[in-house]
Design a protein that fits this description.
single chain, 234 residues, alpha+beta, Immunoglobulin-like, 2 domains, 6-stranded mixed beta sheet, 3-stranded antiparallel beta sheet, 11 strands, 32% helix
Length: 234
């Protein structure tokens, strides 16, 4: 006797097969959900990026506004200071700041000593004398002396015979200012070629005498002259 509603092992469908096939979602729906998920992620990333950019922009704008405010404040302060200085310019110029160092004064020639000397007392034939002018500060403070050729002259005479002057053939003259400490000296040397000169530097054929003749050398600095220095030419 066959029971109604039953089927044999080979002729019946397995239980649950139809329900599993109907529960599997279609492929198109899966793809749509995946695309939607990716789009949502992109929107989130974009929103985060835009939010960060907005924050950075706000910070930069805030810093710029603060810097501008600072610059305006500094400019106002500088303008106020300049205005104050301009209004007090008269009193400021009335009391200038003293200089750290004062200029060295020119030597009082009354306190300056000029002396003349030669490097030897007697010279052999053909040997040229070296004439020296020594300038000494006899004051109590440092002072400046013009030791340039514009102020110096070396003169040699023999009796009434004017033999030589360094000013006769001097093509140009200049200034040389030296600071001399109290009690100290400056010395200027002049090698004499044993020649004669005349004012205007005209040619002179004659030579100074020799054979033991004596000569007098006098040095001059400005209007100050030295005592005589005597030497001998052989």
């Amino acid at each position: 006797m066959v029971r109604q509603g039953t089927s044999g092992k080979n002729g019946s469908k397995p239980k649950g097969t139809a329900s599993r096939q109907s529960a599997r979602p279609p492929v198109a729906a899966v793809y749509r959900r995946r695309r939607l998920f990716v789009a949502v992620i992109l929107l989130v990333v974009l929103a985060v990026g835009l939010g960060g950019f907005a924050v950075v922009s706000a910070v930069v704008n805030g810093a710029s506004e603060q810097a501008s405010s600072t610059d305006r404040s500094a400019g106002a302060t500088a303008a106020a200071s300049a205005s104050a200085l301009a209004s007090t310019g008269a009193s400021a110029s009335a009391s200038p700041t003293p200089s750290a160092t004062s200029a060295t004064p020119t030597c009082d020639l009354n306190l300056v000593t000029v002396s003349a000397s030669t490097d030897k007392g007697a010279y052999a034939a053909g040997e040229n004398p070296v004439l020296s002018m020594k300038v000494t500060n006899g004051g109590k403070a440092p002072c400046e002396v013009n030791l340039g050729t514009s102020q110096m002259e070396y003169t040699i005479t023999s009796g009434s015979d004017r033999i030589f002057s360094s000013a006769d053939c001097q093509s140009d003259s200049g200034d040389l200012v030296k600071t001399i400490a109290p009690g100290q000296s400056e010395t200027a040397n002049f090698p004499w070629q044993r020649n004669r000169t005349v004012p205007g530097c005209a040619a002179v054929a004659a030579k100074p005498g020799s054979g033991g003749a004596y000569y007098i050398f006098i040095a001059r600095l400005g209007n100050k002259t030295s005592p005589k220095a005597v030497f001998q030419l052989n």
